[in-house]
Amino acid sequence: GSESGQKEGGAEDKGAGGKLVIGFSQVGAESEWRTANTESVKKAITDAGHELKFSDAQQKQENQIKAIRSFIAQKVDAIVFSPVVETGFETVLKEAKDAGIPVFLADRAVDIEDDSLWVTFLGSDFIEEGRKAANWLVEEMGDEEEVNIVELQGTVGSAPAIDRKEGFEEVLADHPNFKITKSQTGDFTRAKGKEVMEAFLKSDGDNIDVLYSHNDDMAIGAIQAIEEYGLKPGEDIKIIGVDAVKGAFEAMAAGKMNVTVECNPLFGPQLVELIEKHIAGEELEKRIAVEESIYTMDQAEELLPTRQY
Ligand code: GYE
């Protein structure tokens, strides 16, 4: 390798100190998590002195495909891409590869066999998050004879929705007293979370012990639905969320939500470092995970002031 000796400014003056043009195709603005993530990535790119081209896909795949094509046409130096769903991006990623533009998957994964279509995937382990949610529940209610769970899924076909379901079910498979009685998508938004929870309550209101929500925003929407229905969220129905956004800490501090599994969106600086390393010719791991934890109701008040998203 060429590891010894002085750095010489990287390829064509890019990389080591060179200014890059980076296109960022973001999923949308569906949740508190997403807002924090967009901020973190944008700020890290511009703070490092690079030029940012940003595109918000409003949770629509066709908008992302258009955005990536336009980044290719503009000959950006690198593309950051958070795929709204796992499949259907093969063609456009091949176009980027053919144009010699490196793609960095951020936050969400794709389900594509040819992993030469991206440099690395930086994001959370969503399966593990699902396991953490279920493990908390087993610990909390494992002695009960029958526990009926309703599930609010994230965006259909998205990596976090698929994986958070899988990890959760994997753990519960060993505990037949837990049953998922209803499961539907709330598209990761508060409004949809509320709407779907209303429907769950209408058809099965007195038989719901637990809500497992694939993100906090849907849980917060559902909490509203539960209160309007006349039940106590956090007590009559235990509430599990994912993300650990401020809104969840507020709900937990108010006794309305029981637990949230952390999914850290603040990986902007780590991502920019990876892009710079790649441009400078360094080899990167194909999969880089973000570290995270889980937080419960009794920790909420203490930790709320320190939460950064
Ligand atoms: O959990 C959810 C957001 O992809 C990890 O997307 C992300 C998820 C996050 O809308 O709130």
TrEMBL record:
Disordered: annotated span: 1-17
Biased composition (Basic and acidic residues): 5-16
Domain of life: Bacteria
Start and end residues of each Periplasmic binding protein domain: 22-282
UniProt keywords, alphabetically: Signal, Sugar transport, Transport
The keyword Nucleus appears for this protein: no
Subcellular location: Cell envelope
Principal place of residence: other
Pfam families: Peripla_BP_4 (PF13407)
Family, similarity comment: Belongs to the bacterial solute-binding protein 2 family.
Protein name (record): Simple sugar transport system substrate-binding protein
Protein source organism: Metabacillus malikii
